[in-house]
Amino acid sequence: MTRPARLLPLLCLLPLATAAATETTIERDGVTLVYRDATDALDAGMRERIVETFFSTYARQRADFNPAAANAVDIIIDPDYDGVAFVDNKGQATMTINPAWLVERPGDVDLVTHEAMHIVQSYPGYGDGAPVWLTEGIADYARDRYGLDNAASGWALPEAIADDHRYDTGYRVSGAFLKWADTAHPGLVRKLDAALRAGAYTPDTWAALTGETVEATWARYAQARAGGQKGE
User: Which of 97, 37, 30, 110 is CA-nearest to residue 70?
Assistant: First the structure.
């Protein structure tokens, strides 16, 4: 995917890394980002790609889903973290990234798009009032919709359904289901997102928004996929 024309002006603002550590503050479109890499685990080129991906995708996600989302964000590059990436919305919104993941998979920078959506979400009760499958499914729906270059990492929402897939499998499986369901019920994902953020989501919310249970929607989705359809 062609990068936005605004990339070069942004990158010109980035200072050169110091020999021991990098801490960079960038302000753009009303959002302040502080990027910290205490051990310089990622090079300047990767840093620039992370920063550009964040600003390009977060601005659109924030505008579409939650204009009141954080306007100050930290990105921490932490070699001691052995996962891929995660977001902490308690206090300062912070995205932590394992640099080893991006060193081994330099095309996967759109993981930032997924994590940025978690900042936009800021749901109370992750795993309780906000089911994990739906939270992560919406984040992967957002990665598919807003990502700058998912193809570079071979990342895509699945177009086929495996025997063990369900609507609540989470991540890409649920993201693909949500994308299809949003076509069938325009605005569904935004309405689900709003209910989750308000702490108002219950198992009955899906039926209230679509006129059918989530299981019934999944059955129609599975039938459509079996017939080779990409939407309704």
Answer: 30
Contacts of 166 (CB under 8 A, 6+ apart): 173, 218
Q: What is the pLDDT of residues 11-51, one digit of tens each?
A: 334 444 344 589 999 999 999 999 999 999 999 999 999 99
Residue tagged 């759109």 (tokens): 110
Give the C-alpha separation, 94 to 12, whole Å: 24
Q: Using one digit for the tens of pLDDT, what is the confidence trace for 63-74?
A: 999 999 999 999
Per the document, the length of the chain is: 232
β-bridge partners, 87: 95
Q: What is the pTM of this model?
A: 0.88
Residue by residue, DSSP assigns 124-177 as SSBTTTB-HHHHHHHHHHHHHHH-S-GGGGT----SS--TT--TTS-HHHHHHH
